[in-house]
Amino acid sequence: MKKFSISDIECLTGIKAHTIRIWEQRYNLITPKRTCTNIRYFDDNDLKKFLNISLLLDSGMRISEIAKMSDQEINKYIEKLSECEINGCSCTIGSLCNAMLTLDEAVFEETMQTSLDSMGMERTMLEVIHPFMRKIGIMWQAGTINPAHEHFITHLIRQKLITAINSLQPSNPSHAKKYMLFLPEGEVHELGLLFANYMIKARGHHVLYLGANLPFEDLLSVANYYDPDYALTFLISDNAFGDVNLIISKILENLPNWTLAVSGNLAVTGSIKPHSRLTIIKDVPQMIDFINTNAEVQRLYFTC
Predict the structure, then answer these.
(1) CB-facing half-sphere around the CA of 216: CA atoms within 13 A
(2) Looking at the structure, do residues 224 and 146 belong to the same domain, yes or no?
(3) Beta-strand pair 40-41/33-34
(4) Residue 12 shares a structural domain with residue 130
(5) Per-residue pLDDT at 44 exceeds 70
(6) Top-confidence range, 62-66, 171-175, 207-211, 272-276
(7) Which chain regions cross the lipid bilayer (predicted)?
(8) pTM of the full structure
(9) What is the helix, strand, coil percentage profile of the chain, to 5?
């Protein structure tokens, strides 16, 4: 069981440390544990309760009301919140955090399905999953989660995306533009690429999806065969590459006749040198604009 400082709890829940201390004195809401050297800390169960309290506060409940509730009553109320119509609300993100921290696939499935039924895949990804992934990054920095937690939750999100992609109608070859999607050698973070696959296919285009960790020497032969209108990749892991411009130059060298679009953390934060065949996509709205602007095709939208 992990140990969390009050600053960790503040970072993960958004509840100020000063507020937590006041709650301890006024409501005896959660009593911190102490190490053998008398240092205060909170455990996994405390974190889960703080996350639930944060959700209840976001739903409009007052802390004085929450303090009178038992843990069972809080959990029951949280279940009711997860059944409400969701509009990218924080209760969904909080529920996903709980599912990840407790490795509870059933909670993940219920939360995701409620969001998908209400919002569809694209809005769920934009308004729920993207903020959730940012929160995962914060949890990494705080040491709240380990690789098993991230692998567990990203694997489940990946499955949902693949199911949504497979449910889309095939493109019309006479109208569709052709996109070649890949992650270069050394890059394995695939969720962004999968979501791009979904958005492109949902708009009636054809995608050749090559997945992660594609060797550079394979790019040219595949592109010569497929002849895409656009090649798209994501650069996420700065530990996988040195200078981001070196990796982009290497990709462009292996795709001498095609337009390359690059997204991901390194594309956003790096100082990218301009190139006539290079487009930098900094966020999802830019990705949508790129797809819509660069392809004249009757756009079909599907929900899953």
Answers:
(1) 11
(2) no
(3) antiparallel
(4) yes
(5) yes
(6) 207-211
(7) none
(8) 0.74
(9) 55, 10, 35
